[in-house]
Amino acid sequence: MNHLKVILLVSSFIIPFVLGFQLFVTSKTNISMLIMSFALFNSSMIFLFNYFYFQKDYTLYYPFHSVHAGLELCLYPSIYLYIKSIVIENNKLKSNLWHFALGAIVMVFASLFFYVYIGKEDMIFFLKYNKVGYHFTGLKFQLLIFTRYVELIIIALQAVYYSIAFIKIPKEYNERLKNEFSNIENFSIDWINKYNISFGICGLTGFIFYTFTPIRGYHELIIEFVFFVFSAFLCAMGIVSTKQQMPSVDLDEIKIFEIKQNLRNKFTDDRLLNELKNHIEIERAYLQPEISLTNVSRLLGTNRSYLSSIINQQFGVNFNTYINQYRVKYVHDYLENNPLITKEELVHLSGFGSRSTMNRALSKIKKKNN
Questions:
Q1: 292 forms bridges with which residues in the sheet?
Q2: What secondary structure does DSSP assign to 199-222, as a single string?
Q3: What pTM does this model have?
């Protein structure tokens, strides 16, 4: 069992470190990948300190105890900052750095508390006997126990807060994507929700075992396995992040392109509507997988916000639904004349970005008609 514990502990910090280093080297100007590499480095340091602690090398662990406490509170914010780096402009990321303030404050407070007030001998004694059922007496040890539970509660509250954010941000981002692109799968960050659930399960399991059970025997093995799984999910998230694509337009705010001011009035609403229908219906621009609101607005000589308002007012839908309605009709018509065509070929012909996107659009239209 000892060999298994070592394997779990070592893997938990070695794998994210290697992956984080690879992302750092290949990130170049990709801020999102750079932030993800930081998240992996952060988790690697946390699990390295876990290794010292669970291996009972308290003399080596002691100098890093305050750093360990602070880094634990930077893990969720680093993932949060990665998500924000996808959905907002890079120059707005600085305003989100306050999420790391709590980790920095805890690190400073812990340094003063552990090394100045508690002292090395008492701190090592506490680390050695804290989770094995020893009954502590004395003010120093009672304060240590209190601060330990306070930090665990903060971590639990932090997990809840960021889990909600991880659900909310992708949902809002998808709505903005649908106002610009006909196919959003390349840019969507819905995949993050799968990891959000995984992090929640791991965090809850680890919190229960670490808080309410002594760290010995199989309980210790379970906690170490939970840490390993958490690390594995984070590494998987890092790998998936390398495939994440960014839209070429700013979705945070509607921007007017570099056109003359009177171009907005180049068309009356009716004329612009006719030009739009001609481009989409007659020229069948909806069959282009890369069609976007920005490209169509440029082609028609208007701006993005004006065209978006015309589509919303006249058809009651966003750009994504507007284009996919034509694609769905095309798919139905094509299937009537070519019933043996494969779905992969149909995806390519109809302009849908993927089979799953086509299936969702077909299902959405079917429900609406029913």
A1: 181
A2: HHHHHHHHHHHHHHS-SSHHHHHH
A3: 0.84
Distance from CA of residue 212 to its chain's centroid?
A: 30
Q: CATH number for the domain including 289? A: 1.10.10.60
What's the total number of domains in the chain? 2
Residue 361 to residue 101: CA distance in whole angstroms: 43
Phi, psi for 292 (deg, rounded to 5): -140, 160
Phi and psi, residue 227, nearest 5°: -60, -40
Residue 251 lies in a domain: no
265 and 237 belong to one structural domain: no
Going by pLDDT thresholds of 50, 70 and 90, the confidence category of residue 134 is confident
Give backbone dihedrals phi and psi of 266, rounded to 5 degrees, phi first: -60, -35
Structure tokens given for 187:
């840019």
Q: What does the block give as tokens for 114?
A: 């552990």
Note the pLDDT tens digit of each residue in 71-90. Answer: 999 999 999 999 999 988 77
> Domain range spanning residue 356?
261-369
370 band by pLDDT with thresholds 50, 70 and 90 = low
